[in-house]
Automatic annotation (TrEMBL):
Chain residues that bind 4-imidazolone-5-propanoate: R75, Y133, H160, Q224, S300
Protein name per its UniProtKB record: Imidazolonepropionase
Pfam families in the record: Amidohydro_1
Cofactor or coenzyme needed: Zn(2+); Fe(3+)
Organism (species): Nonomuraea coxensis DSM 45129
Subcellular compartments: Cytoplasm
Matches recorded under InterPro entries: Amidohydro-rel (IPR006680), HutI (IPR005920), Metal-dep_hydrolase_composite (IPR011059), Metal_Hydrolase (IPR032466)
Lineage of producing organism: Bacteria, Bacillati, Actinomycetota, Actinomycetes, Streptosporangiales
Binding site for Zn(2+): H66, H68, H221, D295
Amino acid sequence: MTATLFDGIGLLYTGDPEREEITDAALLAEDGVVVWLGPAAEAPGGAEERVDVAGRAVIPGFVDSHAHLIFAGDRTAEFQARMSGEPYTGGGIRTTVAATRRAGDAELATHALALVREMARQGTTTVEIKSGYGLTVEDERRSLELATALTDETTFLGAHVVPEGVDADDYVRLVAGEMLTACAPFARWVDVFCERGAFDGDQTREILTAGQRAGLGVRVHANQLGEGPGVRIACELGAASADHCTHLTAADVDALAGSGTVATLLPGAEFSTRSPYPDARRLLDAGVTVALATDCNPGSSYTSSMAFCVALAVREMRMTPLEAIRAATYGGARALRRADVGWLRPGARADLVVLDAPSYVHLAYRPGVPLVHQVFQGGLLLQEDIQNPPSVVVL
Ligand code: NIG
Ligand code: FE
């Protein structure tokens, strides 16, 4: 058994609603699990190792509950066109599908691993990874199998768009049938892009309920580009999360408030598509649990930085710094229905981010500044191989 005392913590943001902030704190981890935290003056003795963070702030590792990391190619030209006034429609998804289908397993795995490491360097210790750029039975299956090497939080998103040249009804039957059967062993969640131009309410319901019958939990890409039935379906089916939530009616907000479904906001997407941000205040004021995530993907949000999303949430979505850090840690864990991450309290995994700052507020106050000093995952320091990922890794 290895016991490590993290000491000299100027401000500990715990993510635990019962005791969110502790000043002049210490935390004891044993075998990768938090066993005690509190005022440093009361710290128990007996630890074999001591990490003195010299007055810095400590937060739980970020929980990025929405990312699309299994893909090939990039969409720089599409981004440039948008920054010259073109709207985002989701049509570019097919460009990435073509590149992903052409790529070999090793290329997809290496690229996804590099993104996971890029995230880890920036303090993300839990990440969800979706399929959705394969859109054939085999390409979706292999996307998810590759994702399982990187995270436990894998999501089957065969219903991302209807692939070119395929009839929509045939495709929905395929996704809810043969594709789901092939993918379910590698997935924890099922997701549908419920949007005009992607899948309508009936198609969404059919695919999600088939996923539930196969034992998967539900999450939904909902109300990103316009109002629609996505959020209400998510709440009806008891989804863990409705993601995007950019265009909401009063009925959508009420449905979220009266459900156990988290609203996951993805401000990187609004930033990168130059779209209006979701109204986080309206959701928070209605008592909805809010998560923040990157939506990391080559089309609508090619950022891996949770700190950037926190800064956007504070500046552009009128969340307070406390609400934003809570959404990026505790909120993300609720969106994945995880009790072992997203907060620091006895029994939780010792995922700690030491900030080169006196407070988590600096994540928004000093936007764009690399404030992550050290990252501990399960009590272990992420080291050089994470800081400098090799260019070729064969999994
Ligand atoms: O969450 N909205 C659907 N899916 C992604 C974007 C995918 C893409 O443009 O490649 C999203 O924003
Ligand atoms: Fe997404």
